[in-house]
Specification:
It contains seven helices and 28 strands. Helix 4 packs antiparallel against helix 5. A hairpin with a 4-residue loop joins strand 27 and strand 28. It has five domains: about 90 residues, membrane protein fhac (Ubiquitin-like (UB roll), Roll); about 80 residues, membrane protein fhac (Ubiquitin-like (UB roll)), CATH 3.10.20; about 70 residues, Ubiquitin-like (UB roll) (Roll); about 55 residues; about 230 residues, membrane protein fhac: a member of the omp85/tpsb transporter family (Porin), CATH 2.40.160.
């Protein structure tokens, strides 16, 4: 038995000391909630009658507290002694045998009772965590009842409730028999949206973002997905999507959508630095309601040490079929590892997001001027059709601990259609996150790329590959792995990289990383010769996003390289 000295009154007259002698897992609870122990901690001067009252009251409280932990036959002895003007009160607690769950009976009423949804009822019963044979605790009993309703409340029965519950205790056999009745209420189905807060932008934007169709069964996840789509649309600073679980409205429950709109125009500035492309400054101007139809016009300029970009994009809001269309024009020039390019791209895109899947179909025309020292000077052009498919299961967390991001891309061009060379491009990248202990995670990443063509000549460099840098093979300069020429490194047709990284976070927002990267880029699969990079890093979860600092050793170049990126928007 552990003995705990609860408190000692600072006032000499009628001071009270309380000791609780109980098994270790029960003593902290008793010392916290017994009235006598609380009075002792307050250091109040107490009369003889008050001490006696606290002694008796605390004994009853101890029995009630022990009952919530499944001890219904405790033995509680108290002794009270006086030394001068001070009182010493001691409780010796023997909890006795613990009551365990002997039987469990769950009945269903409401619409679910008369339906053929045995699977849903079985799932709800599996969610009930207080199983026969487990110790009976009041807290576990309350939690289990909440968990029992979970599958119903998140599905088509948002009015579900516990209609009746009883825990019948048999002290003689230390057993608890549990019975519950769950009233599912009626099944709920979507009605029409009821929108508030839409003043500046067309209400059709809100309606077209909805994945909910009248007459479909209600699901909480669909309501959350709708709210997320509104948040990510760029038109609304806040969004709320909910239903009222009123059984009288179950046949066509209104979908209540409340939004707070963003300003129509926005000008922003930003600055940052990256070990890939150097220091940067950027500015953008956004108009969210061109022609009063919710069309977004964005002008963007980005100046980096090794790359400069200017772009304009006109984007339509999502239509009733779920597609978002855009037209864009971009001019870019860069000088990376001796490969100088100046390119102009005109692109039309159609994108669609459904749940965790995002797809983009694009048609683009690109012209490019490429130079590498005195050994290469070329003009390339291509009219290409491209398709991208991405699945994200990591949510919106900056540092996810589980899930994955998978991206697959395919595209190509024909020489007969405004292109210098016919080619087909295939690319895939997969990042998988695993929890590793309470505060750690394991990250596995791999990517493969291939350009199928008779020659690389005439193919714009944006369709080709190089490796190395922060998000590729650390320990090597950005895009330094490719075809080495006198004066620079040229892009090639094949790519393969991989990475294994372990992160562990400490108290607060700081963490560390250990990683191994490998990969290469070459003009044929047989020429791929992976190089390795090893390193350690620091991680910081800042309010504006993750900050990573890595020190990597490139085995092939026998050099250490620092990898770092940071950006701030104003």
């Amino acid at each position: 038995m552990a003995v705990f000295l609860a408190a000692l009154c600072a006032t000499p007259a009628h001071a009270l000391t309380v000791e609780v002698d109980a098994p270790g897992e029960l003593r902290p609870m008793l010392d916290r909630y017994l009235e006598a122990a609380r009075a002792a901690r307050l250091g109040e001067a107490l009369s003889d009658e008050e001490v006696a009252r606290l002694r008796s009251l605390s004994a009853e409280t101890a029995r009630e507290l022990l009952a919530t932990e499944g001890y219904f036959l405790p033995v509680i002895d108290s002794t009270m002694t006086r030394s001068g003007n001070d009182w010493a009160l001691r409780y010796a607690v023997t909890p006795g045998p613990r009551t365990r769950v002997r039987a469990l009976m769950i009945d269903f009423s409401g619409a679910l009772a008369g339906s053929d949804r045995d699977r849903l009822r079985a799932r709800s019963e599996r969610n009930f965590s207080l199983k026969p044979g487990m110790p009976f605790r009041q807290a576990d009993w309350d939690i289990a009842k909440t968990e029992l309703l979970g599958p119903l409340l998140t599905g088509r029965y948002p009015a579900a409730r516990i209609a009746a519950s009883e825990a019948r205790i048999d002290p003689a056999s230390q057993a608890a028999d549990l019975t519950l009745t769950v009233d599912s209420g009626p099944a709920f189905f979507y009605g029409q949206p009821v929108i508030s807060g839409s003043r500046r932008y067309p209400e059709s934007i809100i309606r077209n973002l909805s994945p909910l169709k009248p007459g479909q069964p209600v699901r909480l996840q669909e309501l959350l997905d709708y709210q997320t789509a509104l948040d990510l649309s760029g038109y609304y600073a806040q969004a709320s999507v909910r239903i009222e679980p009123d059984p009288a409205l179950a046949a066509a429950v209104p979908i209540r959508v409340e939004v707070v709109e963003r300003p129509e125009k926005l000008f922003s500035l930003g600055a940052g630095i990256s070990t890939d492309t150097g220091a940067r400054v950027q500015s953008s101007w956004l108009h969210r309601d061109i022609l009063d139809r919710g069309l977004r016009l964005k002008l963007d300029a980005r100046l980096e040490t090794d790359r400069q970009t200017g772009a304009a994009e006109l984007a339509w809001p999502r239509n009733a079929s779920g597609y978002e269309n855009s037209l864009g024009l971009q001019h870019k020039q860069e000088d990376i590892e001796g490969q100088e390019t100046r390119s102009t791209v005109l692109a039309a895109k159609r994108s669609r997001t459904r749940g965790q899947i995002e797809t983009t179909l694009s048609l683009q025309y690109q012209t490019e001027r490429q130079e590498i020292g005195d050994v290469l000077s070329a003009h390339n052009q291509a009219l290409s059709a491209n398709y991208a498919w991405t699945r994200r299961t990591v949510g919106r967390a900056f540092y996810p601990r589980r899930g994955h991001v998978l991206t697959l891309q395919g595209g190509g061009a024909l020489q007969a259609l405004l292109s210098d060379t016919s080619f087909a491009r295939l690319y895939g990248r997969h990042t998988q996150y695993f929890p590793a202990g309470e505060n750690g995670r394991l990250i596995l990443r791999g990517e493969l790329g291939s350009v199928l063509a008779q020659t690389r000549d005439g193919i714009p460099t944006d369709f080709l590959f190089r490796a190395g840098g922060d998000n590729s093979v650390r320990g090597y300069a950005y895009q330094s792995l490719g075809r080495t020429l006198e004066g620079g490194v040229a892009s090639v047709r094949y790519l393969a990289t991989g990475s294994v990284e372990y992160n562990r976070f400490f108290e607060g927002n700081w963490g560390m990383a250990l990683f191994v990267d490998a990969g290469d880029a070459a003009d044929s699969p047989g020429a791929l010769s992976p190089v390795f990079g090893y390193g350690v890093g620091a991680r910081y979860r800042s309010p504006v996003g993750p900050i990573n600092l890595d020190l990597a050793y490139g085995q092939a170049v026998e050099e250490f390289r620092l990898h770092f990126s940071l950006g701030v928007s104003f």
